[in-house]
Amino acid sequence: MEDLKLQLIQCGTPMIYACEGVTKSKKFLFSYIPERDAIVLNKKHKNYEHYKDLLLVYLQFNDLQKREFLSMPRSMGMTFFDSVNRVLRMRKKVLRT
Fold first, then answer.
1. For residues 16 and 4, is the Cβ–Cβ distance under 8 A?
2. For residue 21, what pLDDT is reported?
3. Nearest Cα to 42, choosing from 53, 55, 28?
4. Quick check: helix, strand or coil at residue 42?
C-alpha cells in the first residue's frame, strides 16, 4: 500500500483520493482502504470525472437526502452509490468499535 501514488481530492472522513496505475483495468471504479479510511477512485476509468463530482456532492448529503437521491441512479441500473453506501456503513461499524 505504501507504493500507491495517491492524489488527494478531498480531506475529510473518509478521505477521497485518485490513483492512476494500480490496475490495468479501466472498468475498476473505486476501492476503499480501511487502514487509511480512504475511498480511492481510478483515474483511468472512462467516467472518472463524472463519478468524482457525484461522489463529492453525495458525501455532503444527510441520510434523508441520500435516500431521496438513490431512487434515480437505481432506476437507471447504477450500482455505484449502493457500493459507496456499503463502504459508509462498514466505516460506521468500524468507528463504533
1. no
2. 64
3. 28
4. strand
The amino acid at residue 18 is A
pLDDT at 23: 60
Helix (H) or strand (E) holding 92: helix 80-96
User: What does the alpha-carbon distance between residue 46 and residue 65 come to, in Å, rounded to a whole number?
Assistant: 27
- Alpha-carbon span 9 to 18, nearest angstrom: 7
What's the DSSP call for residue 35?
G
In sequence order, the β-bridge partners of residue 30 are 41
pLDDT in tens, 38-62: 999 999 999 999 999 999 999 999 9
